[in-house]
């Protein structure tokens, strides 16, 4: 169980780094406004929207596994 928690934590960190990298590249190229909207009609749009949703989900699963592992 500890390995799964570590795996999801690493996955969450990698996903967040990818999302931050995409934002950094967009800011550097002055294309930030062309990426929006990220979430429309309660659904993720494009790859960036799905990456953000996956990062949030991986972070939540990692936190839940950490909380249940301590008990």
List the helices and strands and how they pair.
Blueprint: H1 2-28, E1 39-40, E2 43-44, H2 46-69
Antiparallel strand pairs: 1-2
Helix pairs in contact: 1-2
Can you walk me through this structure?
The protein has 71 residues and is mostly helical. The chain has one domain. The chain contains 2 helices and 2 strands, in the order αββα. It has a two-stranded antiparallel ribbon. A hairpin with a 2-residue loop joins β1 and β2. The longest helix has 27 residues. This is Integral membrane protein. Keywords: Membrane, Transmembrane, Transmembrane helix.
Keywords:
single chain, 71 residues, mainly alpha, two-stranded antiparallel ribbon, elongated, transmembrane, transmembrane helix, Integral membrane protein, membrane
Major sheet: arrangement of strands: 1-2
Global Rg: 15 Å
Mean pLDDT: 91
Helix content: over 70%
Number of domains: 1
Written as H for each helix and E for each strand, in order along the chain, the element string is HEEH
Beginning-to-end CA distance, first to last residue:
12 Å
**Contiguous runs where pLDDT drops below 50 for at least 5 residues:** none
Number of helices: 2
Largest sheet: 2 strands, antiparallel
Number of strands: 2
Beta-strand portion reads 5-15%
Structural class: mainly alpha
- What form results from the Cα inertia axes? elongated
Please sum up the structure shown.
The chain is mostly helical.
